[in-house]
Amino acid sequence: xxxxxxxxxxxxxxxxxxxxxxxxxxxxxxxxxxxxxxxxxxxxxxxxxxxxxxxxxxxxxxxxxxxxxxxxxxxxxxxxxxxxxxxxxxxxxxxxxxxxxxxxxxxxx
Length: 109
Description:
By secondary structure, the chain is of the alpha+beta class. 38% of the residues lie in helices and 17% in strands. Helix 1 (53-67) runs antiparallel to helix 2 (75-100).
């Protein structure tokens, strides 16, 4: 994984890349990184601010769908999109199960 977890957090630093003609994809080390902060924390904290996994998956599905068209459409990207959709559905099912059991938004199993 190229992303690194920020110690003692639920945040990650992601590298930034440039698509360079004649070279291809190149990591840009003298540029900013992108931080992702997930909504997660100790249950006694007053507020948790960040993104949720489902929204990140939605962004990935949308992005891959936008580039998987015409001559660039291929089975690998189509399968990746379907796998991401399946992953999101599993998270939705997990949330529904936790809600039914009355443990949604808690640290209880």
